[in-house]
Amino acid sequence: MSNVEITRAPFDPAVLYKALFLSLVAIFVAVPLLATVLGGFKTLGELRVNPFGLPRHWEWQNYADILFSQRYWQLLRNSLIISTLTVTLTLIVASMAAFTFAHVRFYGSSMLLSYLTLGLLFPAATAVLPLFIKVRDLGLLDTYLGVVLPQVAFSLAMSILLLRRFFKDIPYELLEAALVDGCSYIKFFRYVTLPLSRPILATVGTITFVNSWNAYLLPLVMLNTDALYPWPLGIMVYQGEYSSEWHLILAFITLTILPTIILFLLAQKHIVAGLTAGAVKG
Amino acid sequence: MARRMATSPAMDAVEPAIAPIAARGPSWDGRLTVLVLFLPPALLLFTLFVVVPIGEAAWYSGFNWNGFGRPTNWIGLDNYRFVFQTRAFWLALRNNGLIIAVSLLVQLPLALTLALMLAERFRGAVALRMLFFMPYILAEIATGLIFSFVYDGDYGLVASVWRAFGSEAPHLLASTDTAMLAVLIVIVWKYFGFHMMLFIAALQSLDKSLIEAARIDGATRSQTLRHVVIPLLYPTIRLSVFFAIIGSLQLFDLVMPLTRGGPADSSNTMVSFLYNNGISRMRVGYGSAIGVILFMTCVTFAFSYKRWFMRDE
Amino acid sequence: MRLLRKLGLAATAWLLAQGAAMADTTVKWLHIEVNPAQVKIWEEVARAYEASHPGVKIEMQFLENEAYKAKLPTILQSKDRPNIIYSWSGGVLKAQIEADVLDDITDQVKGYSDTLTPAALAAFSRDGRVYGLPTALSQVGFLYNKELMAKANVDPASIKTWDDLLAAVKTLKAAGVTPIVVGGADKWPLHFYWTHLAVRIGGKPAFDAALRGENGGFAGETFQKSGELFKQLVDLQPFQNGFLGFKNPQAVGYFGDGKAAMTLAISSVYHLQRALAADKVGLGEDKIGWFDFPVVPGGKGAPSDTLGGITGWLVTKGSPKEAVDFLKYFVSKDVQTRLAAGNYIVPVVKGAEVGLNNAFMKRIADNLAKSNYHQNFYDQSLGPSVGRVVNDVTAEIAGGSMSPQDAAKAIEAAWKQGN
Q1: CA-to-CA distance for B17 and B29, rounded, in angstroms?
Q2: Smallest Cβ distance to A52: which of B16, B157, B257?
């Protein structure tokens, strides 16, 4: 991926430096990733003497064993359940609130909105102990919801802001006309706002999904049964179990990040837009 | 460095409410229904799981409590005193400072340089952008594990390079001198792509005519860069700095698989310190005190940054 | 093919889960044992119990040692908590009793409890009430690799005092042998040094006085001196390269691979090193030896005093009565004899020691029988948070970032905070 070909001014030394610099950075980024994928194909002995190169003998067994284990699929399933629930709930709750803030004028609206944006200012970690106690008292420890609800709560602030900004761009005349025609706010929301807002919903959904899929701290504190563990917890347990059998750990890492990478390659535009969204518009 | 904060520090949301719908037509009833149905879920969730726990953290931090039953042993501000007396706390604070310094002095220039190079169109530019961005979407846990392999003294990449030169491989993560350095390198590896993307997006939305005008006036490439492009990027740079700092204050997942904050607390961040000393020992009071300190730090920082550096936006 | 075996286990678990439809009671048993051979016996015992008790299902769950300690406080608060959990007794157990998360099983074990070694049972009792059952005793001491010692011309039998140990370390280093391997990342393997030195220097009186806050408590002379002597060892750089990054299982494997001459370890490591060695063979009986922790001249502790664990199982609040019933079955003379015969444990059931058929294990059992003062691991006996501080500061002494005096003061401060 580092064979940068420059189309203009091939003999400019600056171009050469640039190519060199880009190649160095590309190596810096790519080598750990490639070594991880390839390391999963090696034996432990080979890994020690040949951590960089292609495996002399491809050990498909490392990957096969994991792919055929119940454990791997269970971790992915748990992660998928948690992330999907989080995304769905976030989108529903946030879009309803954002719609209200965008289209309904009421006393205290701006105050409530700034109240919600407080959530942007600090990470979930600050209150994780009381959060644990709260989830325990609600009887939600060791349930998917115990992870999902706090995750939704912490993703609301940003989601509402992004959605509201988009909703406000929907021409006011449209709403006015609909209301005159006897269409209710709720119907307008359901049949006009939401369908028109697919791009921003996709963006917000992507951000929420990636955050939830990768999350570690909340599941670590809230879940105790390994049957419920999402993959970041599961992979830490796996690493604890196989401590220095790096060939197996590397294969496991590769397989657990594979879904993310595939998703990224399939939907890169959305993800890049999503994760840098809002930021640019300031 | 800004996983949970992929948007602006948007306190700008406080805008005068618009939509003078009430003026005519639709009835108050319609709006009431929306208010009653649409707002409470968000407010309830947010209050219950975000605001109340912060308040409770402040309350619990006055107790010596192991989390069982209800807190009864009130010890006032002692937990804060204990936190400030802990050497590991100051180390964690120092490490957060280091992360911020590296973000500003290494990551930001690197991201900006790459953005300037890759914002132009040439074959491979898009592929490189994607490659550089890829670490950002990987989970911190996976990244940490990958690098604990890279740094492993027996099997790791660094070790084998060392051995190739015939010297004994260092265990970078096992020494109080190098563990934090090793973590910092991973941080740059993981997050520079995100900041690069911010800059690329900003560069692509720049007003090209300003740059052209400068070139026509006879400015060299580097002059244009320094006097036109970079100033135009200031808002994005300020934003990138903001993310870097807030991100450093919540860094945890990356540290756990690499060092768990060790050895001898030399690579703890505020959050891993909170986890190691509060949560995993179930010292709810003490841990809440750390949480409150972290909260105050975040909020103070966000408000003052907003006030001092982002006033014009 | 560990994975294949795991697959097999998973398949078995699945089959059993199918059968569980008709099981009335499930007893969840959370353990931290990493030696597959021992776990296999446990499973057989569990299956045998199920066979003779229709309607009861024993479900085994595993957590890695460090993960277990970090998660335990939250595990105990969850609705779906396991019924039987692992315990090192001591202050952690005391905290759990006070927090009311355990079942009082006194009445259920009445009569049966007489079969246990009184000292071991006492460790799991408080104010005459029994909260768990002990299963095994262990001793901390030095395991050594005979070949490496011979290579450096060190006679292990001659290491009697702390200075002898320091001299041996120097000789080993000069011969190009890594003297000691330790799992420094987990911290507690380092705390063995500090604690055992305290046992040698001050004996039981010093520990008891410190608990009462006399003689300067844990900041007192005994404990400062422990740190100083430990620092003497640390200054020789006796540990393997990167020792602060090694987790205990890695360190045990390192010893099993024959890469270091000694390790200060729990007696069960004698066998565990085989399972954790890279080749799964490790050091054979002819290649491994043991000497007790060296004495400190002028120390008040008796040479026969021991540091080690009294480990066992607790029953969590609200568990079905079958949990206790299974524990009684598990800690029975038959099973204990069988585990002793496999050299996994020094048994706690009277008469089960006849199962011990290995000179090493007999020696440990003998040491423990002779010991008048068996000190439980400090990180357990001092309770969940002070114990962690002991681990923290010994790791800091080992890493050179804290002086022995400050370390002792930090422990005393934590003890006073009681938090």
Answers
A1: 19
A2: B157
